């Protein structure tokens, strides 16, 4: 067989893969009679063996070589299992062989996987400590739920519009659920990693991804119970609206990029206004020392995400029905009413109608803004009820800036 330049390069990549993984295994190999049977030379040779066997004899020869290496790895394990019962080195050896074979057809993928394997092997102590000491049982449970939502349920959801008026797309609804719990989980992880340094402002921003309204209510209660935390509580309340804007942009990205494109500038200005107002209070609140640290708990609320999906489905049906009966005027009425409960479901319902070809992107702007406005009214009411007059008088100006920031840039859009 003639060895081309491409084949030689891919065998060289296989050698690099073996050296990379083997270097990590060599450091843990040990010395003397009790050392592991496979080190850097073995891994390098096995990786090249995988590439050469596939190059010469195809899948059949690679399968035979894999069985032979598996048998040798099993013999090595039987000899050393009393001192090291783990199978990591043996599994890594077989994977290195297969990665060597993969370089013949997908060298970039093989190289990327090799780097991932090397990182996993090198981070053994950190991974073990994280799983055993840092990760709680509840967090593991949440991770499994998130994995099931993404890898099991999402692929099974039908990707077509169903139900009365053809208003419900199950896959789109579940994508929004996954998006909500993913953002919430990301915020939870950030709090756990960064610690309490930024106190309530950071917690408010991150918990706003779950529910800005609930965050404002919670911060109002805390400000009333602990007046010394009023400044960071106000900062947290206003910064939670930044999460509202970001989530609104995210759900529009999933459902209708045309609507997102039209609202990009208003959302950007509104979010900037919320950030500026929140940062002013954050800078003042950072001088206040809070003794409360973030505690381990639930990474996200599946009940909240499912409730959001239920509200969204109801709004979709209502909006589609009113749109069918009354035209765009019905959508505006339903959006304004639904916005008191949730601004995201309003945006998704309008954007879904655009995605289904039942509404123009321009006609969806007013319902989205109406829902965001009425939702802000709800936040202001909760600020007053839970936090009292002093708290509300500090939060409401920030909310008004957010609404002004979204309406003023949007007004020219309605003149076209």
Quickly count the helices: 15
Strand content: under 5%
Shape: elongated
Element pattern in H and E:
HHHHHHHHHHHHHHH
Protein described:
With 416 residues, this protein is mostly helical. It has 2 domains: 5-130, no CATH class; 136-415, no CATH class. The protein contains 15 helices and no strands. The longest helix is centred in the C-terminal third of the chain and has 46 residues, at 365-410. The N and C termini lie far apart (69 Å).
Features:
single chain, 416 residues, mainly alpha, 2 domains, 15 helices
Short description:
The chain is mostly helical. Helices cover 78% and strands 0% of the residues.
What's the arrangement of secondary structure elements?
Layout: H1 5-27, H2 40-80, H3 88-102, H4 107-122, H5 124-134, H6 137-156, H7 170-194, H8 199-207, H9 212-225, H10 230-255, H11 257-285, H12 302-326, H13 328-339, H14 343-355, H15 365-410
Helix pairs in contact: 1-2, 1-3, 1-4, 2-3, 3-4, 6-7, 7-8, 7-10, 7-12, 8-9, 8-10, 9-10, 9-15, 10-11, 10-14, 10-15, 11-15, 12-13, 12-14, 13-14, 13-15, 14-15
